[in-house]
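Inputs:
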Amino acid sequence: MRLEPIANPSLARRIGLPVLALAMTVVCGSLLALTAGADPFDTLRLIVVGAVGSKFALLETLNRATPLIFTGLAVAVAFRARLWNIGAEAQLYAGAIVTVLIGTGATGLPALPLLLVAGIAAMFAGAAVLIPPVLLKTRLGVDEVVTTLLINFIMLLFVSYLLEGPMKDPAGMGWPKSTALAKEARLPRIVDGLRLHWGFALAILSAIAVWVIQTRTTLGYEIRAVGLNAKAAKFAGIPVNGVLVKTALLSGGLAALAGYSEVAGLKGHLSLDLSPGFGYTGIIVAMLALLNPLGVIPSAIFVAGIFVGANSMSRAASVPTYIADMLLAIALLFMVLAILLTRYRVKRG
Amino acid sequence: MTGTTQEARDIVLRLDGITKRFGPLVANDAISLTLNRGEIIALLGENGAGKTTLMNILFGHYTADAGQVEVFGKLLPPGQPRAALAAGVGMVHQHFTLADHLTVTENILLGTQPLWQLGLGLGVARDKIARLSADFGLAVHPDAKVSALSVGERQRVEILKALYRDARILILDEPTAVLTPQETDALFETLKKAVARGLSIVFISHKLHEVMAVADRCLVLRHGKLVAERDTHQTSGAELAALMVGGAVPELSPSTAKPGAPLLMLSRVTTPDAEAAPGLKDVTLTLRAGEITGLAGVSGNGQAALSDLIGGLIRPESGTLELAGATVAAWSAHDAILAGIARIPEDRHKTGTIADFSLTENAILERYREAPFSRKGWMNWGAAEGFARDIIQTYDVRCPGPDARIRLLSGGNMQKLILGRVLEPGPKVILANQPVRGLDIGAITFIHSRLIAARDAGAAVLLISEDLDEVLKLSDVVHVIYEGRLSPGFARGSMGPADLGLWMAGQGFDHAA
């Protein structure tokens, strides 16, 4: 068996295969539900209803999608340049810490400037976390997969220290959480009465901005060139290392916005369970979106929907919520296979 | 070869109606051929004519869609690489398949021994290798490490490897591409000894004078079809060339150069050695306006270092560079582009283009930061596409359109796009590193005539090539590079291939150093 490249994949192939991948995911998900002793159709129906079946469910899904759009964009931007940023989790927490520092401080600023300052500062903090691994990569050739991954653990321990020490809420009854943000430092809801904050709108705008950067600016052109063929890019005079640093600033900043939006928009304080692995799930989101920044939006909503739906389903049926993780893993595997088969056909001999 | 004896008529290899399709492309179209005992046949054809596919089918790497292979009267099972080896067919690849840190003997033994066995039986093997190398004139020391061998010697090891396995049929894929003229002559002596001992040889090449020198019969492939079969003494190089191309071959005859001012000078430049190739050693070189300077040499003798230095990818350890009268310590790739150095890289697939970028994106790769292609960081894709369309038209790039990924283009069309990209801005200096390697005659003629036109327009051209014929045909001045050192410049016509061959093998440098 060998793979033969397809010069111009047909439209049927490009659309049919991903649809087939989703169908296969549903089939495998049903089998999983069956092994858990539940009715597969009922389980799937409950997941869908739990994710988008009501106004409340839909808003919950969109809320959950918001940080995933940010981390998905962070990963998509970095992976496009073949910068393997596995550390969106750490960058998210860096953004959250800075947001809390500014949001709880007596700055005396009115709401809008305060939110702007906090957002920009959070982005810088996230970028600052990603810069050392990137410099190690460009200067010394240290593999960034390892360094960015390890920084995640360091960051979690650091947050734990902050919450037990300097940032601990004195009125927190001993719980490891920070003081709550001032009212001016909270992102308001988009529509009064609907539980959806401006972080979601910011996420959509960020996706559009990243798309514009990638397709319309010289930086986007450089990022794509470096990612597709760094050797040819270097030969053509593109400053490869400089492009990687700029990519890191963008990627780290976007991941930090996830922390900013979760703290300022949703939670109002920093705690150790701020992110149930949004940084890692961002990798799945980005891969499902084929690293396309606009594709990250539906991809993040899809992934968030599975999580929210599975949560709600497990309350109604006796199927563990782990099914959400397995469904995502299966969806990702089938999608990667579909992508491969879009561009190659399998031939015998 | 009169072919009167029974022995000479023994057919050792027969391909019968071999057909292989890759999608819509018919790579081999009902090809039938025979190889007799004690005969050398040449398989001729341009790149993409189907030579390699045919040999891959013979070796079981591909399965033919139709047709069969017969070796010594026995049918080979399709798709089994070991079957051909076992039947006595040996192949010497263009790119050697030797383990650098093993000795010659160990390399030859690799793969011939059972997996579980105490001791390698090196002594017996050594004797057999020594005997083979004496019989066939393949001088190489059995205990030498392969990493210490020259390219010519490595090729001898490859041939010994096949002979050690008792190959009765040898297939040589472009064997002379990496050899000096003298090494080529020695190889031909070996081949003649081999056929005198009853071996049969298939010689794959596109160098006509070599084919004329060594082959008994010539088979010409074109677009996957066997278009002609000629006895060598009944044909001519010109006829074979016309058969390969399918029409008359255009002749290039560059006018006399009118050298002008020096545009780029290296004085006493030394660069660090790279892992596999030497750096430059005290090299002094002047490139003049309106002149093509050719650089001959066996590959891996410092060509890469010189090309990278002028291209702005490496810095000299010592020595000075002078560009258009100004002395500079070094320049970056971007500086080189801005200074008007057009660079045609050796590897158009990996260095020259980005395979998954469109023609438009590839066309502006070196100039995307300049107006009109971008302003203040914003791309102007309209202007970029217009530029790509200009190149496609002016340089006759055959492609589906400027939006097509460049991966889909043939090597020749890819190279024409690179040529357009670097020549359109009107460069002062042109660095052409292996500009036509692997291209068909049409593309070669086109690219050569463009380089000559650029020379006549006043550019200084440095042509780096491992093909001595190409260097001699185009260059007004020829230098030879050997282990990082540069020979003096020889004016056009003052040196023949044999004289340059001696320099390429390192003779003449001893006093110079």
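The interface with chain B takes residues 4, 7-8, 216-222, 224-225, 228-229, 231-239, 349 of chain A (CB under 8 Å). Flag for discussion at group meeting.
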